[in-house]
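Dear H.,

Thanks for agreeing to be a second pair of eyes. The structure we're designing against is below in C-alpha cell form, covering all 386 positions.
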C-alpha cells in the first residue's frame, strides 16, 4: 500500500461494530497508522457478526475484516489499572482517538476528552453516539435500523402503499463514519495550523437527519407538508415522473429527470405526449408512470438504451452485481483488491474510493488478530519513554 497523505498520523480506534471502525479504516486507507484497541480474548463483538453463516476469514467474520483492514491490534482490559496506564501512555503519543461507547463510559474510565487533553493537548478525539450526549434519547442503543427509523429516513424509500421501508444497507452507520472522518480531518488541519486539537462528536441520528437535508429543508419551509411517494415505481418522494425504475422485456431500466413529451417521442409512446405541463409530471406522476410501466415492457433494456442514450436522455440499465462485474466500465475503475495474510488464503474486497494525485490506495493487510501487535507497540512506547 502507498504511504498516503496521512503518513505519520497515529490513530487509536477504541470503537466496535461499523460506524467507528469504518471511519478508522478510511484513515488507514489514506496512510494513517491505526491501532485497534480491543478487550483481550473476545475483541470487537463484530468478529462474530456474520452477514452469512460461512463467511469468515482467519477465525473471524468476513464483515469484521472488511471494516478493520490495515490496522494493528492491541489488546487491553480498560478496567485493569495496569492496562489502563499503558493505554494512557499510548494515548499520550497519538494524534487521534476514536470511541463509540455509550455516554459516560469513557468518563468513568478516565479516558474522556476533558481528561485526555490534560496529558495530550493536541489530541483529536472522535466520539460516536447513537443520539448525542443530551436529551431523553442519549442512553438508547445506537443501531442502524433504529436510527433510520427515528430519523424519518424510512418514509422516503419504496412506494406509498408500502409504509416505511428501510434502506437495505447500514446507511446510518456508514454516513456517520464518513462525517466523523470529515470532522477529524478538519481538526487535523487546524492542529497543523495552530497546534490545537479538538473533540469531534457525531451521532447516528444527526447524520441520518443530515442525509435528508434537501427534503427536510423543503418540509420545514413548506408548512410541514409530509412527503408523499408515488404509488407506482417510486424512487423519490419529491420528484415527478419519469423518475424511477421500470421493468423491460428482459430486465429493468432506470429513468432520471426529463421532459415527458420528449420521452414520449423518443419511445414512440403517444400517450406521454399528452402531458406537456411540467406541473403535471408531479401531480399526475402515477398516471404517467403507469403508462411507462406498460410501454417499456415491450422491448429489451438495451433496445431502449440504444434510443435514449444517443439523445442524452438520462437513463441507465439496472445491473445486478453479476452484471456489474462483467462491465468494462467497472473493470476500468479497478475497485477490487485482494486482502490476506498470504497469496493462498484471503478474500476480495473493495479498495478506498478516494484518489489523491491520481493514485489509488490499496491495502492488502487483513484485520489484526486480538492483541497481535502488543509487543511491537509496547516496544515503541518504551523507545519513546527512553
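And this is the sequence the design step returned. I haven't edited it by hand at all.
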Amino acid at each position: 500500500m502507498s504511504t498516503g497523505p496521512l503518513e505519520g498520523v497515529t490513530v487509536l480506534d477504541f470503537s466496535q461494530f461499523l460506524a467507528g471502525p469504518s471511519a478508522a479504516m478510511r484513515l488507514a486507507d489514506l496512510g494513517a497508522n491505526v491501532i485497534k484497541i480491543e478487550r483481550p480474548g473476545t475483541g470487537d463483538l463484530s468478529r462474530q457478526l456474520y452477514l452469512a453463516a460461512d463467511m469468515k476469514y482467519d477465525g473471524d467474520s468476513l464483515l469484521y475484516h472488511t471494516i478493520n483492514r490495515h490496522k494493528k491490534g492491541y489488546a487491553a482490559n480498560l478496567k485493569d489499572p495496569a492496562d489502563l496506564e499503558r493505554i494512557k501512555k499510548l494515548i499520550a503519543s497519538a494524534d487521534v482517538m476514536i470511541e463509540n461507547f455509550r455516554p459516560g463510559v469513557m468518563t468513568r474510565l478516565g479516558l474522556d476528552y476533558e481528561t485526555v487533553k490534560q496529558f495530550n493537548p493536541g489530541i483529536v478525539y472522535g466520539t460516536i453516539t447513537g443520539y448525542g450526549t443530551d436529551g431523553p434519547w442519549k442512553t438508547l442503543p445506537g443501531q442502524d435500523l433504529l436510527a433510520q427509523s427515528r430519523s424519518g429516513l424510512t418514509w422516503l424509500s419504496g412506494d406509498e402503499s408500502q409504509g416505511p421501508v428501510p434502506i437495505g444497507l447500514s446507511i446510518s452507520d456508514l454516513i456517520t463514519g464518513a462525517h466523523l472522518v470529515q470532522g477529524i480531518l478538519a481538526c487535523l488541519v487546524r492542529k497543523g495550523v495552530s497546534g490545537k486539537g479538538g473533540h469531534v462528536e457525531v451521532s447516528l441520528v444527526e447524520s441520518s437527519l443530515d442525509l435528508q437535508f434537501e427534503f427536510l429543508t423543503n418540509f420545514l419551509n413548506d408548512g410541514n407538508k409530509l412527503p408523499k411517494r408515488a404509488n407506482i415505481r417510486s424512487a423519490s418522494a419529491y420528484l415527478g415522473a419519469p423518475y424511477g425504475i421500470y421493468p423491460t422485456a428482459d430486465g429493468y431500466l432506470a429513468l432520471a429527470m426529463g421532459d415527458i413529451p420528449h420521452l414520449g417521442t423518443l419511445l414512440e409512446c403517444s400517450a406521454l405526449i399528452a402531458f406537456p405541463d411540467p406541473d403535471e409530471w408531479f401531480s399526475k406522476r402515477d398516471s404517467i408512470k403507469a403508462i411507462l410501466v406498460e410501454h417499456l415492457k415491450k422491448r429489451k433494456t438495451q433496445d431502449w438504451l440504444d434510443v435514449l442514450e444517443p439523445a442524452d436522455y438520462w437513463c441507465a440499465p439496472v445491473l445486478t452485481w453479476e452484471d456489474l462485474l462483467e462491465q468494462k466500465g467497472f473493470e476500468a475503475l479497478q475497485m477490487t483488491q485482494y486482502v490476506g495474510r498470504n497469496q493462498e488464503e484471503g478474500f476480495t474486497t473493495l479498495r478506498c474510493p478516494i484518489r489523491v494525485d491520481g493514485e489509488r490506495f490499496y491495502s492488502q493487510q487483513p484485520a489484526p488478530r486480538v492483541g497481535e501487535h502488543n509487543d511491537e507497540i509496547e516496544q515503541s512506547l518504551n523507545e519513546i519513554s527512553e
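Two observations from my side: The two ends are 31 Å apart (CA to CA). Residues 12 and 349 are 24 Å apart (CA to CA).

Warmly,
E.
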